[in-house]
Amino acid sequence: MAAPVGPEGDAPNHPLAVRMGVIAGVSHNVVVGTVMGSFGLMLASVEQRLGVSAEEAAAGIPLVLVGSSVLAPFVGVLIAKVSLRLLLLIGALLTVAGYLTLAWTQSYALYLLAYGLCFGPAMSLAGSIGPATLVGRWFNRNRGLALGIVHLPVVIAVVPWTLERALSAVSPSMIYLSIGLIAAALLLPLGLLAIDHPPGHAETLAPEPDAKRTADGSFSVAQLLARPRFWAISLAAVASMTSSVLLGSLLVPMGLSWGFTRPEAALLQSIMSLVGIAGSILFGWIADRIGGARALALIGFDCAVLWALLLQHPPFWMAALVIGLIGMHGAGAIPTLGKGLTDSFGQASYSRGFGLNTLIGLPFIAVAVVGSARVHSVTGSYDGAIVAMAVFFVSAIALGLYAAGGAKVPQQLAAA
């Protein structure tokens, strides 16, 4: 028999919640951190070993992003129906297979295969949706903070520095092989220790009558897409994600256009990444206090101001401060999105909602990066792109506040 134990956010976490959080954090960091952190430094060696151009070698990451984004909604549905432990293990095996392929192949086709068919699905299964869903299921109290800690970009900050030194001592093939063996040693045992749900606890359900939900109490993909509040939460989060990818891709040429030297522009990029570590925890904590949707509205307000300040082409010290703060807010998008989805649609709908959000964000990110480069080539300035981002964040304020006004999930159920 099940009995209510108070609001979902007040229900205590299961004693194993911290262990599941560690598993999720390691999985996210190893998959995302090694793939994204190693790519740029290994490009020159790929060109040499495979005899391809820089543009051909650079095709790997777009394949990962497109593959993971397109698969994300399907992964979200799978996670709601199939063992999460099994899916995390499949993601781990795909990650290891990708690195072993890169270590031994002399074929450009297999190089693309490793990124598109191994790392792309692995990013959804074991890098983003799987770990975030595990946290969403196990944490009732301080869920936003837990999501923030799990998504700390620790490995992606360490890998470039480590690989730069390793390349002078060992071959690129040995580096790929070492990463694959480390991934296997960490991800496979931890994946086996993952538990799909807290024993004796039921997931919070979608706040709708039974007739408007699926059999497991969640919203289907079609039901989520039919709800304006889902679109509001999703688009408010996409604004932050677009901002982060845009700056991550174009900050160096932006800095050069503002009169900074290349080392100064590269330093701005490092500052954005380092300050982002604090933002993941800070906005996870804020989301627990004011709710995920309101936290997204707060991020929208702050970022609209920060992007508008970039129009002034400030001196380097002020640009560093503004870019650092934008990075901090951008890193807060994942925990606030996770809290907003579970607040509004319940834990049972989380994986579907997160997967859909990944796909929804893809065209915005692509248009922002390509469009910003085009604006610069036509006008000689990035000001038009900056104005567009500021306007996007103004709309995120309204979207977040609208999403915060709806019904919240019903009470958490636990074994009596």
Instruction: Report helical residue fraction.
Output: over 70%
The Cα radius of gyration reads 21 Å
Query: Helices and strands: which structural class?
Result: mainly alpha
Named CATH topology of the largest domain = Growth Hormone, Chain: A
Order of helices and strands: EHHHHHHHHEHHHHHHHHE
Q: How many distinct domains?
A: 2
Largest sheet: 3 strands, antiparallel
Give the distance, in angstroms, between the N- and C-terminal Cα atoms.
6 Å
CATH superfamily of the largest domain: MFS general substrate transporter like domains
Search tags:
416 residues, mainly alpha, Growth Hormone, Chain: A, 2 domains, 16 helices, 3 strands, disordered N terminus, disordered C terminus, membrane, transmembrane helix, MFS_trans_sf
Briefly characterize the structure.
The chain is built from 16 helices and 3 strands.
